[in-house]
Amino acid sequence: MVRLTIDNKKIKVEEGTTLLETAQKLNIEIPTLCHHQALKPYGACRVCLVEVIKGSRLGLVASCTYPAEEGLVARTETERVKRARRLSIELLLARCPTSEKVREVALELGVKKVRFKEEKEECILCGLCVRVCEEAIAKSAISFINRGADREVTTPFKIGSLACIGCGACVYLCPTGAIKIEDVRKCRRLDFWNTKLELKKCKVCGKHFVPLVELDYLKDRIKSFEEMELPEEALEVCPKCRKRILSEKAGEFIFGEKYP
Amino acid sequence: MRLRCPSDLVKARKLIRSRYDPKKTCVTVCCGTGCLASGARDVAETFRKEIDRRGLRPRVNLRITGCHGFCERGPLVVIYPKRIFYQRVKVLDVDEILSQTILKRKIIERLLYVDPMTGKKIVYENEVPFYKKQRRLIFGNNGRIDPTKISYYIALDGYTALAKVLYKMSPQQVIAEIKRSGLRGRGGAGFPTGQKWELCRNANSRLKYIICNADEGDPGAFMDRSLLEGNPHSVLEGMIIGAYAMGAEEGYIYVRNEYPLAIKHLTIALKEAQEWGLLGKNILGSNFSFRIRINRGAGAFVCGEESALIASLEGRIGEPRPRPPFPAQEGLWGKPTNINNVKTWANIPLIINKGARWYSKIGTKTSKGTMVFSLVGKINNTGLVEIPMGISLRKMIYEIGGGIPNGKKFKAVQTGGPSGGCIPARLIDLPVDYEKLTRAGSMMGSGGMVVMDEDTCMVNVARYFLSFTRDESCGKCTPCREGIKQMYEILDNITKGKGKESDLGLLKELAQIVKDSSLCGLGQTAPNPVLTTLRYFPEEYLAHIKDKRCPAHVCQDLIRYSLIVEKCIGCQICNKACPTGAISGEKKEPQRIDQKKCIRCGACYEACKFEAIRVE
Ligand SMILES: Cc1cc2nc3c(=O)[nH]c(=O)nc-3n(C[C@H](O)[C@H](O)[C@H](O)COP(=O)(O)O)c2cc1C
Ligand code: SF4
Ligand code: FES
């Protein structure tokens, strides 16, 4: 355990806890854009900066990556912190003027006007999609390419991905809604990734609902269907039908065979 | 030959030296990358053929050496034992050198170096002011040894420090010695080397790694390359000593792929060191084993940053990561790792051989030893310069650098690579030391030094360096990626005459906060060129913004080329030089420039022999 102080509040936390997590325990609010508790700390957006005293020096660090250290003193509300957070969000707002999420955080931080040249990007390069695809799904279908001002996220060679299973985890995590996912008849489209995937028919209703590759992936990941007391075909029934069947089964179980 | 104990090394050295007659004439030809580019390979080959053809072998030796640092004057030929110094030697000069200088002891005036400050011709290498004022502790042997043969290095006391360390010092003693010497990292941040080694030594892990950072991405910098090309064993010896001190069994040299000659010489050096028992299992018969591998980098500037370098070594995208954990805690493949610059490693054998006390007497209170700079820009003697820490910029620029060409006025010097700051002429007496440079808004960096004269526009300079960091930022964190881009936009507008006065405040705010909030050293230093030019040359910014004028006549959108009618004789040379056909007129009559067609390339200005074209 290490003891530290944030905004004059003392706390004891487990070693390896980040300053952000520590602050959350203390109900101190810190804005974040590139952080997700299920993924490894990254430290890119810089809106979560706090000021810490390191030896005799004061320095800004990203609270989402900085580990709690014994005797550390951190402040989240100094002028220096505010100035830095505001500039980063203003820069992101200049990059993505239409993003709801960025506008919301900017407003929270008191940034209303952008003094810089505006662009029309939708992606803030927080890397959540890249990381969830690598760390949680283990597919690494997408990655950053280029560096500096030309950095972007895309699939290898910017063509349809061979690794993407269309699970949509990236869509779910993207804070700006830049990645869109759409099922059009027999096909799942992820235009942001230049990717189209063939869908499988539901065994019951016949609607196309899951990419074939995702199905394979799931079957592969679920090591033992028996252990889970799950028939393998369960995956081939769409969620809607699955829900209906389950409730019917439950009804039969409770009310007897005549149900409904 | 495999050396099995320190006395084997002593014996080998004696043997090598006994075969070498110091009085025998030896022609050395520099074949560093710079001299190679100006034709040194052919010069060396011609020497070889001619010496053979004339049957001079018994009387004359030929030696190919690494870079001497004075590439601008290459190909360089130095004739031992007197060290007669010939510069810009051509294949056609070889015959004359052999027949006149070697056989008749006559100096060939034409090939001598002329001191630009005094106009005097100089005969001997050690009297060339460019070398004379330097203190070449780690570079000195570059001109004396053939880097492809370990015997030369051994003859000059090479690997003595290693033998001493392995048999007479404990790892702790080595670290204490390095700490006492006051050596600081030569790769950028200037962290005390001994302290860093101690952290890695004390890290609790059986596996540890050490890395030599030879990524050298600063534009115009080539000191690490020259050292690896010209004296690779000095770097290897430093690394082996470091590995012993920290308890590492494996090391990597991360060298950029654009350095083929350095890679070649390193590869040869590794092979030879291995064969001689100085690398690999049971080094010099001790129970210490260590091996080194070379890894070629793909040339991203940011991969010189330690955490990005480690990521790149592991095969991932070269992106920096936040610290802690520091590499000494969790580095390559999660193991404690120590990373040092090429020059830092090369200092180690020197400190061990001569002692920390001796070493710490060189330099200033906080900056010890020598520093190697690549002196470039508007200066007479461009090249690599090794000086003791603490000498003034004036001495570097005027005494070693030979002053500014064409009688122009010195305006500023940019130190520390693309993220360094511009130090103005009035601070020319500033001593070169880590703290002093930082206080002036610049930094030591890895030793870049770009001299600028009165024809340099400081706003344009800031814009130029930012275009570099904008493209070379890894793009991970917001302030660096977006902030540098926006600063560049503002500067670009100013140089185009579209700046507003409020831009200056905005620029300063951006620069300060990008510096304060970026993730790694790149973003934390990239604004330096902006901050220092704002600080030292505010009037130049204002001239661009308020008067729409570029005082140095550089920014194309703010200048105009016009014709001085009285001076124009109508030779029409300008007319022919103009790529857009903006100049018209009759022969022998004054010409006219059509401002609408003019793209302000300055071709007419360069072409006119009568100074009839004016820039305003
Ligand atoms: C953007 C950036 C580029 C760097 N490039 C280099 C480089 O090319 N060579 C180098 O030795 N150090 C470079 N460094 C410094 C390294 O991160 C590291 O501090 C250094 O290699 C440590 O060695 P030292 O203690 O011997 O200086 C760079 C740092 C940054 C932030
Ligand atoms: S400061 Fe620049 S180079 Fe460093 S991590 Fe951030 S974006 Fe990458
Ligand atoms: S949330 Fe910490 S840097 Fe983005």
Blueprint of the fold:
The complex is a heterodimer of chains A (260) and B (616).
Chain A: E1 2-6, E2 9-13, H1 19-25, E3 49-54, E4 57-62, E5 73-75, H2 79-95, H3 100-108, H4 128-136, E6 143-145, E7 152-154, H5 169-173, E8 182-184, E9 187-190, E10 195-201, E11 208-211, H6 212-221, H7 239-255
Parallel strand pairs in A: 1-5
Antiparallel strand pairs in A: 1-2, 3-4, 3-5, 6-7, 8-9, 9-10, 10-11
Chain B: H1 6-18, E1 25-30, H2 33-37, H3 40-53, E2 60-65, E3 77-80, E4 84-86, H4 94-104, E5 113-114, E6 121-122, H5 129-132, H6 150-155, H7 160-168, H8 171-181, H9 193-202, E7 209-214, H10 223-230, H11 232-246, E8 250-256, H12 260-275, E9 291-297, H13 306-313, E10 337-341, H14 342-354, H15 356-360, E11 370-377, E12 383-388, H16 393-400, E13 410-415, E14 422-424, H17 434-439, E15 448-453, H18 458-472, H19 478-495, H20 502-517, H21 521-525, H22 528-536, H23 538-545, E16 561-563, H24 573-577, E17 583-584, E18 592-593, H25 603-607, E19 613-615
Parallel strand pairs in B: 1-2, 7-8, 7-10, 8-9, 11-15
Antiparallel strand pairs in B: 1-3, 3-4, 5-6, 11-12, 13-14, 13-15, 16-19, 17-18
Summarize the structure.
Chain A is α+β, with helices and mostly antiparallel strands and 260 residues long.
Tell me what you see in this structure:
The complex is a heterodimer of chains A (260) and B (616). Chain A has helices spanning 19-25, 79-95, 100-108, 128-136, 169-173, 212-221, 239-255, and strands at 2-6, 9-13, 49-54, 57-62, 73-75, 143-145, 152-154, 182-184, 187-190, 195-201, 208-211. By secondary structure, chain A is of the alpha+beta class. In chain A, the strands form 3 sheets. In chain A, strands 2-1-5-3-4 form a 5-stranded mixed beta sheet, with helices on both faces. Chain A has a 4-stranded antiparallel beta sheet with strand order 8-9-10-11. In chain A, helix 2 packs antiparallel against helix 3 (100-108). The model of chain A has no long low-confidence stretch (mean pLDDT 92). Chain B folds into 5 domains: 24-80 and 84-123, Glutaredoxin (3-Layer(aba) Sandwich), CATH 3.40.30; 150-360, NADH-ubiquinone oxidoreductase 51kDa subunit (Rossmann fold, 3-Layer(aba) Sandwich); 370-453, Ubiquitin-like (UB roll); 458-545, NADH-ubiquinone oxidoreductase 51kDa subunit, iron-sulphur binding domain (de novo design (two linked rop proteins), Up-down Bundle), CATH 1.20.1440; 560-615, Alpha-Beta Plaits (2-Layer Sandwich), CATH 3.30.70. Chain B is globular, with a radius of gyration of 27 Å. Chain B is an alpha/beta fold. Classes of the chains: A alpha+beta (260), B alpha/beta (616). The interface between A and B is medium-sized, with 36 and 34 residues. FE2/S2 (inorganic) cluster (FES) is lined by residues 32-35, 43-48, 62, 64 of chain A.
